[in-house]
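Case study B.
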Amino acid sequence: MSPDPARPAAEVLADLRALRGADAPTRGGRTFAYVYDPALPGLDELAAAAYAEFATVNGLDMTVFPSVARLENDLVGAAAALLGAPGTQGTFTSGGTESILLAVKTARDHARATRGVTGPQLLLPATAHAAFHKAAGYLGLETVFVPVDPVTFRADTDALAAAITDRTVLTVASAPSYPHGVIDPVAEIAAASAARGVLCHVDACIGGWLLPYLRRAGRPVPAFDLTVPGVTSLSVDLHKYGYADKGASVVLYRDAELRRHQYFAHAGWPGYPVVNPTVQGTKSAGLLAQAWAVLQYVGEDGYTALAAGVADASDRLLAGLRDTEGVEVLGDPSAGLVSFTLPAGLSLLLHLADELRERGWYLQPQLSHGELPANLHLTLTPATVDRVDALLADLREALKAARSLPPVTVDPGVLDLAAALDPATLGPEEVAAVLAFAGLTGTGGLPARMAPVLVLLDALPAPLQERLLAEFVGSIFRI
Ligand SMILES: Cc1ncc(COP(=O)(O)O)c(C=O)c1O
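Model:
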């Protein structure tokens, strides 16, 4: 891409639109991960217009751009009213990962200041989102993780309580967890943490803007927010079931004294005095403005109606899946997320995902973890409500087609070889050779069928998978 000669806007935009052609559709209810489509007329246009109004405003300095403070106070206030308790304070962030990074940093710094903890541990159920591992990696915490119940997929409070040490700075409960969509026993985990003087974070990134409205729509929802004794922080993404465009989340704390540890301030350089509540310095206020606009456009009754639609889709999908021979729904999903496995085996499951993709549906493959089986994950949104019957019909057809395909197997010789490889010392040629064997080369694009790649990955140890996947993504971003 060359910036010269300059090109007319219409041509540039036409190029951008053409690039979208190969992407999965973000609207229309056929993509069951990554995207949240409320199917609300006018919403996308409003979000884009609100972004454009504030695109050039720098959220770095709210004393120069006071609109930023007004928008953020309104937005965090709305989150606190929905999920907080008296005294709750928070911050608008760019997404779930940033909210989690900040909550972990806050807990680390709080424990250092108040308990003198210098070798901090982060205590996680196995189903906690990968963002916590990323936070621990970035911020120098040791992760300790405890298994979840293999039938309910919920965190095991006793195991978690037993794993708390004098170095534990934060425990985590998900409401719900991403892999299986089940809500952890938040009240028990929070109580066990409080009993040891340890902070407890509720990851409501995906459920925080859905569960309260499900409750308002008459569905049973256990208490999971900052009103639960012992819960000290909570993350909720507006770019998920808040239906804002991507780049919008909130992290909440029980009080200002805790939130204080999140802020970074620096006066020891010759430039302007720096106070950054979040990871970013300069940031566009456009994302804040679009989230603010979306929240008001949808409104309380709107969110309640959208939540009822998601619950309806979920009920019908679960009933259809449980009625399909050979399919096993995992756990008792609470809110919008559904995962199922095929006890007949991984190869059939992944053939099914490929067959569904050929029929225009994207379901997200999740690989096995210890005794937790590989599965296909669906995030349901209001746009999927009218799609459930068509999906179930195609799923049964696709399953039939998948059963007629030869199973994908992994050569035991390859596994022996893989077991002998040390991911830390692999050279670029060795990595490239394994990737090519798996059918993954960035330059050649992804293979049309992913089953052979994923069956092999699933059989490899996690550290080797991580090395290969990072290398593969590096080969896609090749410059
Ligand atoms: C429970 C949970 N936590 C954290 C995240 C990470 O959020 P993000 O992708 O916005 O960084 C997700 C994303 O799906 C999630 O479902």
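Residues 305-403 form a domain with the Aspartate Aminotransferase, domain 1 fold (CATH 3.90.1150.10). The remaining cases will be described in the next quarterly update.
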